[in-house]
């Protein structure tokens, strides 16, 4: 059976290597106390209950407790477990088995296809943005499809990043250090967060790199999150081949924390993919803040930053924290003279990819994110930073602040704006 035709129901938990971690659970309840969803609603009894505890009663994808559907897959439980139990992964597979048995809704199939949304919205960007702001249209969409009327939505752009890249003139320093990097923009960076992708390329060129952007598409994360594992595997395979079409010795740099995390660990840990192509791109992938801090540690980062008198609130997305890289963005922004970075200290903003747009989960997502919203308003109500696209959409909508990728600040400090 090929990886493209595997189903979650075709694989045992022994094959996933997750059941072997169950008995390490000592029921310390640390995961329960740190779970951002269980903190705000009784609809989700907690990761230990639906995870290690419930897993012992499951067999062949059997549904034990449908409350597992309220897990946002933020990964906090696995991150904080002192015993190394793969709580989030166990929950993810169990929830997917349940969704596949019940049938995946049309809504979940639609919102998982970000590339389709981008291609549809870009040619008619002004109309699309207008329609997303019309309350009667949003009310109808909520009733028919199940996307909450107040859920954060991306802003359509009039051009894609790749169209900009094909026409742009590299900065004078580009290629002067004799090295190439591959820029992985992700689908949101291609269609919705175009400015972040442009800033990333210009910063890399300013540092002397020749930036390669082979045409590529979606990483499949939203498909995976909504239980469409087979489709997600196809996307990962295609993306791996696309990124390998450029220099196979060059590092792959991304400004999308979630997409980078998909290649670095989720495709392996959740989708159980183990192909030479994925392994190749996985070990070469770096988050852009991680990449720049590596340069700093090697004494190779240009520190000729302009002074900026600024205190900026920063929220580290849960998907980025799950990669185990720490918070390089905090250190990076802190290198700019006059900049003070204050980190939220919160596990999740509530968005969790597509979780926060769903009608039945919207209120939970807002309650999860409220401490982050309050934090931004208290520290700097006008400007904040966050590494992943959907989290920025959530925080912008809830606070009214201009929530940017940390590379925005670096771009500005280098005088590239």
Structure description:
It is a single chain. With 417 residues, the protein is of the alpha/beta class. 48% of the residues lie in helices and 8% in strands. The protein contains 23 helices and eight strands. It has a four-stranded parallel β-sheet with strand order 2-1-3-4, sandwiched between helices. Helix 22 links the parallel strand 7 and strand 8 (402-404). Helix 18 packs across helix 20 (328-334). It is globular. Residues 1-15 have low confidence and may be disordered.
Topology, element by element:
Blueprint lengths: L12 H4 L2 H4 L7 H5 L12 H9 L20 H5 L6 H16 L3 H6 L2 H8 L3 H8 L2 H10 L16 H7 L11 E6 L1 H6 L2 H13 L2 E4 L8 H5 L3 H15 L7 E4 L2 H13 L6 H9 E3 H10 L12 E6 L2 H4 L6 H7 L4 E5 L18 H18 L3 E4 L2 H11 L2 E3 L1 H8 L4
Helix pairs in contact: 4-6, 13-23, 15-17, 16-17, 18-20, 21-22
The helix count comes to 23
Overall average residue pLDDT: 92
Helix content: 40-55%
- Largest sheet report: 4 strands, parallel
Distance between the termini: 51 Å
How much strand?
5-15%
Widest sheet: strand order?
Answer: 2-1-3-4
Gyration radius over CA: 21 Å
- Tertiary shape: globular
Keywords:
single chain; 417 residues; alpha/beta; four-stranded parallel beta sheet; globular
The gist of it:
The protein contains 23 helices and eight strands. With 417 residues, the chain is α/β, with parallel strands linked by helices.
């Amino acid at each position: 059976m090929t990886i493209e035709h595997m189903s979650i129901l075709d694989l045992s938990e022994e094959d996933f290597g997750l059941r072997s971690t169950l008995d390490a659970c000592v029921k310390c309840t640390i995961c329960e106390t740190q779970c951002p969803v269980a903190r705000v609603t009784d609809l989700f009894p907690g990761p230990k209950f639906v995870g290690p505890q419930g897993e012992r009663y499951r067999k062949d994808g059997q549904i034990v407790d449908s409350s597992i559907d309220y897990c946002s897959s933020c990964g906090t439980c696995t991150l904080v477990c002192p015993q190394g139990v793969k709580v989030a992964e166990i929950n993810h597979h169990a929830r997917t088995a349940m969704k596949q048995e019940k049938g995946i809704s049309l809504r979940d199939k639609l919102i998982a296809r970000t590339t389709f949304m981008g291609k549809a919205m870009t040619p008619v960007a002004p109309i699309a943005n207008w329609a997303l702001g019309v309350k009667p249209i949003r009310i109808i969409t909520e009733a028919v499809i199940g996307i909450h009327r107040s859920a954060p939505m991306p802003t359509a752009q009039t051009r894609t990043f790749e169209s900009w890249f094909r026409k742009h003139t590299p900065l004078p320093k580009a290629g002067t250090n004799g090295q190439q990097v591959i820029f992985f923009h992700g689908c949101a960076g291609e269609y919705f967060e175009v400015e972040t992708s442009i800033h990333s390329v210009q910063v890399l060129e300013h540092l002397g790199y020749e930036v390669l952007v082979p045409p590529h598409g979606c990483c499949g994360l939203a498909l995976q999150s909504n239980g469409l594992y087979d489709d997600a595997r196809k996307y990962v395979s295609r993306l791996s081949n696309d990124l390998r079409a450029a220099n196979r010795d060059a590092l792959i740099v991304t400004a999308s924390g979630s997409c980078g995390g998909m290649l670095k660990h989720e495709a392996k840990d959740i989708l159980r993919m183990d192909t030479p192509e994925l392994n190749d791109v996985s070990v070469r992938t770096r988050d852009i803040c991680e990449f720049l801090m590596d340069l700093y540690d090697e004494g190779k980062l240009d520190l000729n930053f302009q002074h900026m008198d600024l205190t900026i609130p920063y929220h580290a997305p849960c998907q980025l924290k799950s990669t185990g890289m720490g918070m390089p963005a905090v250190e990076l922004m802190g290198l700019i003279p006059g900049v003070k970075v204050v980190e939220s200290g919160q596990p999740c903003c509530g968005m969790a990819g597509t979780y926060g747009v769903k009608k039945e989960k919207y209120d939970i997502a807002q309650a999860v994110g409220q401490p982050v919203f309050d934090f931004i308003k208290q520290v700097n109500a006008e400007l904040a930073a966050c590494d992943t696209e959907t989290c920025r959409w959530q925080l912008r909508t809830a606070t009214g602040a201009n929530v940017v990728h940390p590379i925005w600040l670096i771009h500005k400090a280098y005088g590239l704006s």
